[in-house]
Amino acid sequence: MSASGGPLRIGARGAEAKAVCVFVHGRGQSPEEMQASVLARLSASAVAFVLPRAPAGAWWDARAIDPLTSVARAQLSAALDHLAAAVSAARAELPGRPLLLAGFSQGACLSIEYLCAGLPAPDALAAFTGCRVGVPGDARSDAAPAGVPVYLSGGDADPWIPVSAFADAAQSLGIKGARLRADLFPGRSHEVSDAEIAMLDDILGDLSAGRGPRMGAAR
């Protein structure tokens, strides 16, 4: 499981693990909540899951859609360092396995920023209800590598990530050449829906089988 304050590790171990998923929780949540509300609904049996834990229960204090202040930038930088260390440790523990970086809400936003920061790229990214951090007028990292499969989802009435922020993230990633699928769900509450769980299963199944994610699950 996990040491106090450390990441939660569940799923396949050693040679049984055919893929790795680093899954990042949202604001005010925990890895254990992500396990119960998201990962327990998956059928992926050959995946090792690593769930980093925000030191203070949130990766930064501001809303993702607020303009970036010096404090927010410093907190985001620290969160990216934390996530980069988790990704690096997961790769070192299970070398050669394809790695999916995924997250929900603030964790999805952090995962998107990880890719845009030009850090060592995952084999795929799944951002459930995420957006870029800050506003388009901010000086934001724009170094996402081309060709990474990215699944981006949102809801048209979500209280945390408005449609405009969802569209900004899709445009930002699309311009950089991500292999992008973006699904906006009407009326969905702030959660990971059954359709999104099916997509996550689909992506992990492809990675576990040594295929590039087709992201073909139905909406």
Notes on the structure:
With 219 residues, this protein is α/β, with parallel strands linked by helices. It has a single domain (8-208), classed as Alpha/Beta hydrolase fold, catalytic domain (Rossmann fold, 3-Layer(aba) Sandwich). The protein has helices at 31-37, 70-93, 106-116, 163-175, 194-208; strands at residues 8-11, 19-24, 47-51, 99-104, 124-128, 149-155, 179-185. The chain has a 7-stranded mixed beta sheet with strand order 1-3-2-4-5-6-7, with helices on both faces. β6 (149-155), α4 and β7 (179-185) form a beta-alpha-beta unit. The mean pLDDT is 96.
Helical amount: 25-40%
Count of separate DSSP helical elements = 5
Give the second-level CATH assignment, the architecture: 3-Layer(aba) Sandwich
Using only C-alpha atoms, the radius of gyration works out to: 16 Å
> What is the CATH domain class?
Alpha Beta
Structural class: alpha/beta
> What topology, given as strand order, has the largest sheet?
1-3-2-4-5-6-7
Shape: globular
Into how many domains do the coordinates divide? 1
Total number of β-strand segments?
7
Query: Proportion of β residues?
Result: 15-25%
CATH topology-level fold name: Rossmann fold
Order of helices and strands: EEHEHEHEEHEH
Instruction: Report the biggest beta sheet as strand number plus sense, adding barrel if it closes.
Output: 7 strands, mixed
Average pLDDT, all residues = 96
In the CATH hierarchy, what is the superfamily? Answer: Alpha/Beta hydrolase fold, catalytic domain
